[in-house]
Specification:
single chain, alpha/beta, D-Maltodextrin-Binding Protein, domain 2, 3 domains, 12 helices, 13 strands
């Protein structure tokens, strides 16, 4: 897959960014007609049916919701939806972006009366494939779930793993997150061009730290250098896990880092770090940094995260899980999570998520090879 194709496809992510990046929860929804209904939208009269407006062509019904922030209001909802008891997460990494997402999902579901509790089992290593391999041995646990994302698809490619993510069952893609290239506040680098030029001149003498090999942090810096026509062989990428890239830069072990935007913001606010550029399509409210494109690099590149279930999940439990996630994405709690974390709503439920992965996995494999990672 060409970088141009990747950038073009990423352009659709600009839709509704003003809502996501406003830093505040959206206003109360207005009543939505059945022809435009999504799960969780407000509706006008109990008993009305929105044919085929739910996930995978299922129907929504106008119902009085009794739980969560929607309690006491009429909403387009799934009449057969059953709240989950427990989600037993497998996280294919250490603490950090993946676990932040699972915690955000679980806390939202609990707040909205859609989940009782969660557990987390960290399985880091080999670009996420250690966790994927572990998850795919799980049998007979209908409440098990794996958090996945572009880091895992990249990890599979870079480690040349024979594992197939689609041997597990896609439940939902829930969000998109963009990256920041960051440096110490007193760094000599004042913009991306200075960094890129220095790497081009001094090559591997300039260490750039980020998450797992082939993950989004790695992909972003690789794609930036490719866009700038700098040979990828000049990149000295130092692999860390979780929030360790920040610690590496703060300690002076590496002069530059790549990580999700929200992770670095507290350190920018404290005056310890500075962002050279962000990989989003447009500037983000509350983030003091220009985008890659504003600095002359035609690149938009973001991480996504999603949820998978075990291969032996029953069809009834699979569809119910998908419906639960679909309701979650339209709650005020989740919209606030998106805004606070600078995440973009890019929901795809069930079969739509599966379709996305069938295209995305080979594209990322080709892209990883193309940029030499």
């Amino acid at each position: 897959m060409s970088l141009k194709k990747l950038v073009t496809s990423a352009g659709v992510l600009a839709t509704s960014l003003a809502l996501v990046f406003s830093g505040t929860a959206p206003a109360t929804a207005v009543k939505v007609p059945s022809s435009k209904a999504n799960a969780g939208d407000e509706c006008g009269r109990a008993g009305l049916v929105a044919k085929g407006r739910g996930v995978e062509g299922s129907d929504l019904r106008c119902m009085n919701v009794t739980t969560g922030t929607m309690a006491g209001t009429l909403r387009w909802y799934y009449p057969d939806l059953k709240p989950l008891t427990t989600i037993d997460w497998t996280v294919p990494a250490g603490t950090g972006g993946y676990s932040a997402t699972t915690d955000a999902i679980a806390k939202t579901l609990i707040t909205e009366g859609l989940l009782t509790s969660q557990t987390t089992d960290f399985k880091p290593g080999a670009g996420g494939t250690t966790g994927l391999a572990h998850f795919q041995t799980i049998k007979g646990k209908q409440n098990a779930a794996l958090i996945v994302g572009i880091a895992l698809t990249g990890g599979i490619a870079t480690t040349k793993s024979t594992l197939n993510m689609l041997a597990s069952v896609p439940i939902a893609r829930v969000m998109r997150e963009y990256n920041a290239i960051f440096v110490p506040a007193n760094s000599k680098y004042k913009n991306l061009k200075q960094l890129v030029d220095d790497i081009n001149t001094n090559g591997r003498a300039i260490a750039v730290t980020g998450g797992n090999a082939g993950g989004v942090d790695h992909q972003v810096i690789g794609a930036l250098l490719k866009t700038a026509n700098v040979p990828i062989s000049k990149l000295n990428y130092v692999v860390t896990t979780g929030s360790a890239p920040i610690l590496q830069v703060l300690s002076g072990a590496a002069p530059v880092g790549s990580i999700g935007i929200a992770d670095v913001l507290p350190y920018v606010a404290d005056g310890k770090l500075r962002i050279l550029g962000i990989s989003s399509p447009k500037p983000i409210a509350g983030v003091k940094a220009k985008t890659f494109t504003q600095q002359g690099y035609n690149l938009v590149y973001g991480n996504w995260r999603g949820v998978m279930a075990p291969a032996d999940i029953t069809e009834a439990n699979r569809l119910n899980f998908v419906k639960v996630m679909d309701v979650m994405r339209n709650t005020s709690t989740w919209k606030t999570v998106l805004a606070n974390n600078k995440w973009y709503d890019e929901f795809a439920g069930g079969k739509a998520f599966e379709s996305y992965l069938k295209t995305h996995i080979p594209e990322i494999k080709a892209f990883i090879a193309e940029i030499g990672l």
